[in-house]
Amino acid sequence: DIQMTQSPSSLSASVGDRVTITCRASQSITRYLNWYQQKPGKAPKLLIYAASSLQSGVPSRFSGRGSGTDFTLTISSLQPEDFATYYCQQSYSSASWTFGQGTKVEIK
Amino acid sequence: EVQLVESGGGLVQPGGSLRLSCAASGFTFSSYWMTWVRQAPGKGLEWVANIKQDGSEKYYVDSVKGRFTISRDNAKNSLYLQMNSLRAEDTAVYYCARVARDIVATRVDYWGQGTLVTVSS
Question: Quick one: closest CA in A to B115, which residue?
């Protein structure tokens, strides 16, 4: 099975900061990498798919990069509504998906 | 508007069974793969199972193989998860979700609100 490792597991940042979260796959997943945002008590929300494609309606301050095994999610200027937990997910094979363990973004 | 509404969660004893349902609307249900994803209290997301549009392909995470069965009724626009031999570690919020697939990507683009399953004596 493909393992997904996110880092850091949590971070503290201020409004306006640039934030980058990293996700590493245990083997190549080409660009089958998605990013989700989840707020407490709510369902996850798709932000980025295929490593770098912005989901419709998602602000352009969110961006994704990477291919193969190393990926990043960047928030260019953190906004109050961005404080949440972020998950990467590999969808390389429909027979087995895995999520990263999550990165909690907190207010400094 | 795409809507996914789960039901069927609740409290069940270890070893018991439960059947979750998900009512879909606002899209052509029979055209999409569907998935179940769960989240234990205070923990991260865990993929549970996927099912193809016509039900001909089904995949499960190892921890539920042989105990859970994903199914669908395209005539009723409904997705199901039959859960047998439940364990304490199956306690979680279970999300029904739609899978968007194209040449370059496979992703979960719509989620239900989730239904809580608690396995406890």
Answer: A43
